[in-house]
Amino acid sequence: MNDKLIVAKNLTHSFGETLFQDLNIELEANKSIAIVGVSGSGKTTLLHILAGFIKPNSGQVFHFGIDFASRNLKQIEEFRKKNIGMIFQSHYLFKGFSARENLEVAEIIAKKKIDFQILEKLGISNLLDEKVTKLSGGQQQRFSIARILTKQPNIIFADEPTGNLDRKSADEVVEIIFNYIKDKNRGLVLVTHDEKLASKCDNIIRL
Ligand SMILES: Nc1ncnc2c1ncn2[C@@H]1O[C@H](COP(=O)(O)OP(=O)(O)O)[C@@H](O)[C@H]1O
Ligand SMILES: [Mg+2]
User: Quick count: other Cβ atoms within 10 Å of Cβ 25?
Assistant: First the structure.
């Protein structure tokens, strides 16, 4: 994989007032970028632009050397399915199902097998047959991360992924994400307002 995972050139965006101007960002395999800033500074907006969910007012985003704006809808869908893993502050598991069934959905969509080692590392391998509603918030977040890692995405976009977790759970979850990036040679874009967490990343963008 020679091409950079993300190259963003001269990104400018505003919703009424300008959030950021002429930002240049690059993400290589095995690397991580933190986006930090106060609430409302445009962190989520920038993350969504880098993931191709929002079109910037001006500037370009290239994934693996291809300009996102040049992809048609079908290519965008394929690209997302294959490359992108989104982790949010609140997890989106299917509530009526067991944890295992939630992972099986990811298996089917991604055509990849659940990585039981990840479940072991996350400390949730014994909870597979529990209903989602019976799990604690931290356990649900771990399953949602396991589900995303099952896809083996090339780029993980995480928007304050530990915002709802206590310090210990947060550290464990973050370690899993970082290990995944290093072990599989992938990339991470992490939105956080935790400076300690941001400092673990290779680059920090401040808004
Ligand atoms: N779709 C939108 N339409 C209009 N304004 C928006 C939209 N999304 C975000 N904003 C505004 O842009 C600013 C930055 O939002 P956001 O990127 O969510 O910031 P952060 O994630 O740093 O808290 C906020 O003032 C927010 O209200
Ligand atoms: Mg946000």
Answer: 19
Q: What is the mean pLDDT of the chain?
A: 92
Give the number of other Cβ atoms within 10 Å of residue 168's Cβ.
9
Residue 85 in contact with ligand 1 by CB distance below 6 A: no
Distance CA 178, CA 180 (A): 5
Q: CATH number for the domain including 191?
A: 3.40.50.300
Domain contains 178? yes
Spacing, Cα 30 to ligand 2 middle (Å): 24
Q: Which residues are within 8 A (CB) of 202 and not within 5 positions of it... i.e. 6 or more apart?
A: 31, 32, 33
Condensed to tens digits (0 to 9), the pLDDT of residues 14-50 reads 999 999 999 999 999 999 999 999 999 999 999 999 9
The Å distance, Cα 72 to ligand 1 centre, comes to 26
Please give the tally of structural domains in the chain. Answer: 1
Q: Looking at ligand 1, which residue's alpha carbon is closest to its atom 3?
A: 15
Q: How far apart are CA 142 and CA 110, in angstroms?
A: 19
Distance separating alpha carbons of residues 10 and 156, to the nearest angstrom: 22
Q: pTM (2 decimals)?
A: 0.91
The pairing of strands 17-27 and 6-15 is antiparallel
